[in-house]
Amino acid sequence: MSNPEADADQNGRVSILEAFNFATKATANWYQGKGLLATEHALIDDNGDGVGHTGAEGGDGALAKTTYFDSLPLAIAGSDPEMAKLVAERDRLEREVEQLKTTQSCNEA
């Protein structure tokens, strides 16, 4: 969680999707470095359809991309209710954008 390489979008926070991708890559590299064949592969399913994917595809990943392990927005907002509102609105908009991207990519498939 503290490895700066995990923060793929360089926003200073690690989302669940970034952590998933980082851990998946690190695990694959470990197996490859040992000359071993991985017998299991991580899947992510955050859209509730019961079908996991190895990355952000097939409608999965939008929720994980906008969900973080830290409470940075709360720390930024502090006790300022107006700032808390703005941070909440930004988070809502980010989720909506990701949902629209997912919907568009599913419609194109």
Q: How would you describe what is shown here?
A:
The chain has 109 residues and is an all-alpha fold. The chain has one domain (4-108). Helix content is 52%, strand content 0%.
Set down the secondary structure blueprint.
Layout: H1 16-34, H2 62-65, H3 72-77, H4 81-108
Tally the beta strands.
Answer: 0
> What is the domain total for the residues?
1
Largest sheet: none
Strand content: under 5%
**What number is the mean pLDDT?**
83
- The number of helical segments is 4
Level of helix content?
A: 40-55%
Give the helix/strand class: mainly alpha
In N-to-C order, the SSE pattern is: HHHH
**Runs with pLDDT <50, length 5+?**
none
Summarize the structure.
The chain contains four helices and no strands.
Task: Using brief descriptors, characterize the structure shown.
single chain, 109 residues, mainly alpha, 4 helices
